[in-house]
Each structure stands twice: as structure tokens, then as C-alpha cells.
Amino acid sequence: MRLRDFPAEELFLQGSAACQGCPGSAALRVAFKALGRNTILCVIASCTSVLQSPFPVSALNLPTLNMAFATGGAVGSGMSAAAERLTARGKFKEKPTILVWAGDGGTYDIGIQALSGAAERNADLIYVCYNNEAYSNTGTQRSGATPYAAWTTNTTKGKEEWRKDVAQIMVAHGIPYVATASLAYPTDMFRKFAKAREIRGTRYIEIQAPCPPGWKFPSSHTVKIARLAVQTGMWMLYEHENGKTTYTAGTQRIIQGQAKLLPVEEYLKAQGRFRHLFHPERDEERIAAIQKRISDVFETLQFTHKMKEHIMDIEISPRL
Amino acid sequence: MRLVETGNHVAAWGARLSRVEVVSAYPITPQTQVIEEISRFIDEGEMECEYIPVESEHSAMAAMIGAAAMGVRAFSATSSHGLAYMHELLHWAAAVRLPMVMVNVNRALGPGWNIWCDHQDTMAARDTGWIQLYCADHQEILDTVIQAYRISEDPRVILPVMVCYDAFLMSHTYMQVDIPDQEAVDRFLPPFRSLWKLDLEYPFTHGSVIYPDDYEEVRFSMQQAMDNARRVISEAAREYRDLLGFYHGELVETYRMEDAEYALLALGTVASECRVAVDELREMGYPCGLVRIRSYRPFPVAELRELLAPLRAALVIDRAVSFGLEGPLFSEVKAAVYGNGGPSIHGIITGLGGRDVPYDLIVENAMAAFKEKLPHGSHWPAVRLNEHHRLVKRSLEEYWKKEGVR
Questions:
Q1: Across the interface, do B24 and A83 touch by the CB < 8 Å criterion?
Q2: Which residue of B has its CA nearest to A59?
Q3: What's the complex ipTM?
């Protein structure tokens, strides 16, 4: 799938109340194109509650219910159960896709109980976390998704804890599909949504969503920052199905040695939220700690990849 | 079909006969039997329904909202801490204007852990926009659940309904109940309808940001719906009587009020106990009657004005307290008849945390009330300080002394 092959129909309409360069609205646009019209949406309290535009107008061209902060997994479960009954009664020709759209605050923190419950029951829904790594809707406070050393309004010297990894928590739930996505790789994102649409059960997709006002970078740089995140290993792209993880797009290229892992400094320097790592003086310790965590992961993955290729060679060898 | 069943199983029958299609619930004592019975109905193919065993009451209400928004009839059951935990979403369900029914088994809140009956849980959920109906026997639970769907889905109302009954006194006791034929219930209760649903043909956004100039109008429409509900509750009760033969009163149920000069007012099973007290008081020469309030929200203002106007005195029995004021029912009965002449009104608070409310306690306090000998505000007639309480009081006094408190 190339960009030019994306369906022309826009289900995310013009005139939204999003900030300039808003990653949430860009992600909605791609997701809607991949999922199509037979989709019913539930928006959990987040920036999207606001950016869809205030009553009585809306930028969302899908039937949408806005719901409270902690309810994502549960309200989706209820919608899905009802859709099951309505499909059985012939009200729907084909069961609509239930799409729950939540931010990282509503997923990592207050909403994880309901999400975990839905995943454990394998409720038939797609749960999306668009992760801007802070409570951007309330003015950028720390969340469970905020990375180590990042500034927020209540971590003014940088967060002291490492972020938790909800995508991996969802992998541990044993649900049919878990994927991560990036705004800089829209075709990869589109493919993941299109694939998720065809699967029954709980599907979890997490999109990294660089937020210009929250992360303090020019609003024209959203996609550039998203790409840097993948290129430096701060954000990894993969999908997990049937017990197997496959790395995709930019992350795959780094693991396979087709692209170099860029130093994380390039990513950190491009945003105001890490400024205190470089001004007034360089914080070698914290920069090195971040780089080490990334390098360790990639070294392991690259080693495993090489080993696999090596084992493949051995399997082919009897022909010699 | 005539069964001898627990109040909880009867509530499950109510949901089954109402052709509920989605049930989401989380177990909490003393509600558990309701959802156990429903899951048995589903497993045995007696009920075509999706059952979502959610991981919390907050999620139970969220799932119900999702299901009702899709356009199916939803049901849940909870109690006490469960109701408190879903409080946020009680507001949500009412304000998005979705019809649904939930039973709440009235139970005290902790700490200390107390699984027995009082009305503190539902009183705290009073201002969420839910209609609240209180039952006094098992047949009434069944009939009220079915009526509640009719009320909730009436185009003049479209608000969620909470059907309340007392922990253990009703939830776990067995009583004889007539289970009506499904066809008869179907005649009374039309298929699910709602003001709105999530519609693929007509995609619209519900519950987004709303500015002050529209918000107040939404709340006003809820108040109007509550006002309309008064008429709808009465109509439902009368039509149910005509079609199915059972009648438990409308917004209020009265007993021996025709020639009464005094009255007792209460909710739930205490009101049943009051019948005995009324008979006893009549024998003692007090022409007394009973007003059992079935509909707490909407509050039966007109009924109370009419019933209380000719009386000399009334006693309101609360099974809850509004800390810093008095019994909530007591406050509201007074407020309802204020400026309308009527009797002097007295209040007692008793039966908290499942404490027994014997009829002789009611009789004793009724006599004191009727003779104007009860203190102002809510009186706590059953409170008695024992050795433990005195010990606590002594330690408190010592602490005050140490801290120089006078």
C-alpha cells in the first residue's frame, strides 16, 4: 500500500479544533481511512474529546460516543456485545468494527484496569492509544508514558522514572494482535489498522504522537520528530501476533542493518522538553543512561537477527 | 407460574422477562445471586443475552452505557460500594439520556465492613439524574423492574432507573412470587426504544465539549424529564395492574390513610414494619396511616401535600443520614409540604448498618412524635452507648485535655 492508494474518502473532516501539527488528528485520519465506514467510535477523555470540535459540530464522520476517562475497555466491551446481538438479529449485515480511541493518560494510568479487563475477556474491539507521552489535554503533566528525563509541568527537572510499556503489557495478555505505529510511517500504520480490522478479539494499537506544544517543537516538525523517534530507537515499530513479534518499517531496517541507529541526542536536542539535558550544561549521566537502554535493546535484536540468518544458512546447507 | 424465590432471583426474573440483551455486572454482596441467576438463564438458553463479566462496577456501568448507546436493552445490578464506585458514570448515563435499568441492593458503606441494609448508598446517588424506585416485597421487585424499563424508555422520560430493595431483608429471603407469562409482559413492554443510538447511516457525535449556553439547557431537559416521569410512573403502575394484575401503589403507596390524623413515612422494608405499627397505634387510639414512598426521585411532592395536609403530626423514618443535617427523607418531606399548612413533622434515624427496626420502637417514637415530645431535627432513638463507646469517649476526653481543648 502506497500513500497514493489510500482511500480518498475523508472520515476525519475539516474544521477540527486541533492545534497546528496535531498528531492525534493525523492519526485519526489514517485510522479512519484504513477502517472505513462500518466503524463505530468511542472517544475516551483526551485531546480528541476537544479536537473533534464542540457541540453542535463535529469533525468525526463516524457515529461517536464520548466517554469518561477510565472507561475505554469497558465501554467498548458493551458496544461490542450489543453489536453482536444486533448482528444476530439482522440489524447489521456485517458486525461493525468497534474502535476505542484513547490517549496515554486514559490508557497507561486511569484506564488500564478497564483495558486489561477487556483484553482478558478478549472483547471484540480495536483499542487505540495515541501516545503523546503526557496529559497534553490538561496542559502537559507527567503520565505513565512520559519518558525518563522529559520535562512536564509537574516534572520540571525531568521525570525521574522510566516509562512503562503498555504495548508489552498487552502482549502479556495474550490478545490476538498488538502493534505499535508512528506518524512518520503512515503506510505501515495503515497496513496495521487494515490488518486489525480483519481480526476478531481484542486488538491493541499504540501510536506515538509527538505533541508540538507539549514537547516544545515547531508545529511543522511533528512528522520529523516522529521519524527521529524511530530512527534513534526511542520508539519501536512492531506487531505481535500468534506469540510472535515482527519488527516493521524503520525499526526493522535498523535491526536488519539496512539503516543505522542514530544517536538519541539528535532526538533529544530537537525538542524543548529535554532542553535541561543540554542547558545550562550537558547532563552526560542522563543522556548516557537513555542511550544505553536503547543500545542494549538494539544490540540484542541485531544479534538475534544475525543468528537467525546464520541458522537459515545451516538449514540450506545440505544441498551443498 | 408461582415460585418461592429470593428477592435477588426475582430481580433476575425481571430482567429476563424484560428481554434484556446485554448484562454487565461485577459481583458484590448481597447482589451476587442476581447475576449468578442471569448467567444461569443464559447458559441454559432461557435468555438470549450477552453477559459481560466486567472487572469493576465502574466498568459495569460503562459497558451498560456502551450497549444502550448501540440500541439494546441493558441491565446491571450492584450494591453499596459498587454503587459508590460507579458514581461518576451514573451521572454520565443520565446526562447522555440513555434508558437503562439497574437494581441496587441497599447496603451500608464501610468502614467498618458492614454488609447489612441501610439506604446511605442510594441516598448518595440521589442527584445523579437517575429515577429511584424502592420496593417493599418480592413481587414488587419483579413488577418494578419490568415497569422500570417501560418508564425509562418512555419518550417523555428517557432517563435511567434504579430499582432499590433492602439487603438480606429482601435480597436473600424467600417469598412467594407470581412470574407472569412472557406474552403478557411483551404486551406491557414494547421493544427497546431510545431517544438516540449510534447509527452508521446517520453518524453523529454524542457527548463532546459543550459550552455554557447549551449545557444548562441539557440539565433543564433532565429536570423536565423527571417531572414527566411522575405521570409516567403512575401510568405504568396502573396499566401493569390492568394487564398483569399486580399493583403496589404509584409514586407512593398508602395504608389506612383514609381517615388518618397521623402518619408514618418511610422507604423499603421499614415501611412494611410500619404497617404493624400503624395497626398497633390505631388500637391505642391514634388514627394513624402509612405513606410508603416508592418513587424517591422524582419526589412525590403533590401526593405528599395532598396526603399530609389534613394531618396533625407525621413521623418520617430514615435509614440514612445527611451528616451535618438530618435524615434526607425527613428534610425532603418537610420541604415538599412547606408553605402548605399541614402537620408538624418529626424524624428519626434508625436501622443503619442493618440494625433491627422493630415495630415497637416505631410505635414508641410515633407516640412521642404525635405528642410533640421528640426533639427537633432527626432523633436517633436506637443509639445506646455501651462500655466500648464510653471507653472511646473517655480516651477522647483525655486527648482533648492533653491538647488543651475546652
A1: no
A2: B205
A3: 0.94
